[in-house]
Amino acid sequence: LIHYDDLPPWLQENKYIRNSYRPLMPSIKSCLKSIFRLHTETGNIWTHMIGGILFVCLLIHVLYCYSDCLVHKWDEKLVYVSFFVSVVTCLALSSSYHTMLCHSENVYNIFLKLDFVGITVIITGHYIPYLWYGYHCMPTKRTLYLTITICLAVTTIGVILSDTMAKPNYRLLRTVVFATFSAFGILPIIHFLSLYGLDYIYSHPYLSTALMCLILMSFLHIVGAFLYCSQIPERFFPGKCDYWFHSHQLFHTIVVIGVIVHYIGFTNLALYVRQWPDKFCNQINIQYPLL
């Protein structure tokens, strides 16, 4: 293992993580073997690898154990599959990037861009369940929001795949691009609240849980992005977080927790829509639509 100062410039992303970096390994086999060794990327690799396995198992559990009450129809199955596939895709690409980044500069750039694609995919996947169930009674608006989401995802990928954005000193700008895509979600949320009202939402535990989970997930992602951009806590303890608890590792952990919270939230929304579809549709306040 080598010191930060011995890294090539394109790997010098966090000066507060001082030691225990892998040297360049121009061999795929060597990179894969390093998964099972302790170094600066070990936590980054395993947090998302374990998370990916967890969510594959959870998807199988949902499809087989809740086929009657939750995912009975093909479109409901598609919503859950889309969400979990987006999550697993992101986590798999992330683990692959952290595994292969020490191979060579060319391979590093390829996998970094794939990591960016994975982030865009998971953001898109997070929109789908809430839009699908939240706008169950308004298929036209649901289609509109889903279409805008896809267009924003394609645009984000186009911007983020530029060679300039892959450079270490563009960490903040990359975060801003992804945050902007995520911030679009505020619009359908406000629209939804204007149609149903907080009194109605908080009158039922399923709906209130769905909203609170959405708020909690957003808070977690903001905290994770802040830690990632500010390089906290290693900024205050240089060389002390080389293996564990550095910002990128904490960010990975927060992402996994956020996915679990999001799943709980939209599942509560789905259960409400399944059990009381007429009540849900009749409650829309048509006098004050936002759109």
TrEMBL record:
Keywords: Membrane, Metal-binding, Transmembrane, Transmembrane helix, Zinc. It holds the Pfam family HlyIII. It is found in: Membrane. Its main location: membrane. It is a multi-pass membrane protein. InterPro entries: AdipoR/HlyIII-related (IPR004254). Zn(2+) binds at H98, H248, H252. GO terms for molecular function: metal ion binding; signaling receptor activity. One of its GO terms (cellular component) is plasma membrane. The chain crosses the membrane at residues 45-66, 78-98, 110-132, 144-161, 173-198, 210-230, 250-273. One of its GO terms (biological process) is adiponectin-activated signaling pathway. Belongs to the ADIPOR family. This is Adiponectin receptor 2. It comes from Medioppia subpectinata. The lineage of its organism: Eukaryota, Metazoa, Ecdysozoa, Arthropoda, Chelicerata.
